[in-house]
Design a protein that fits this description.
This protein has a two-stranded antiparallel sheet. The chain is elongated, with a radius of gyration of 18 Å. It is mostly helical. Strand 1 and strand 2 form a beta hairpin. The protein has 2 helices and 2 strands. The protein has one domain.
Length: about 80
């Protein structure tokens, strides 16, 4: 197996892992009381919840893996 095909497979594997990470908040059926904990509230009534911050971090991690996977795939195609 040449390096181009190997890099393409690694990129596809990273994209698969990233899709599971991005879907995790949606398929997580275990709900805790702490998930609705309000961290701060301003005078206009806007607030930030603990679960929103957790979902944001998971989304950033998933997107980063998607981007890395696509970059590796592009390099694999160029080398292959």
């Amino acid at each position: 197996m040449n390096i181009g095909k190997l890099l393409t497979l690694i990129g596809l594997a990273l994209n698969t892992i990233a899709s599971v990470i991005v879907l995790y908040p949606q398929i997580n059926t275990k709900k805790n009381v702490d998930d609705d904990y309000i961290l701060n509230m301003d005078k206009k009534g806007n607030y930030t919840q603990k679960k929103h911050l957790k979902d944001k971090k998971i989304g950033i991690a998933g997107f980063s893996l998607f981007a890395l996977g696509f970059i590796i795939q592009i390099i694999g195609v160029l080398l292959g």
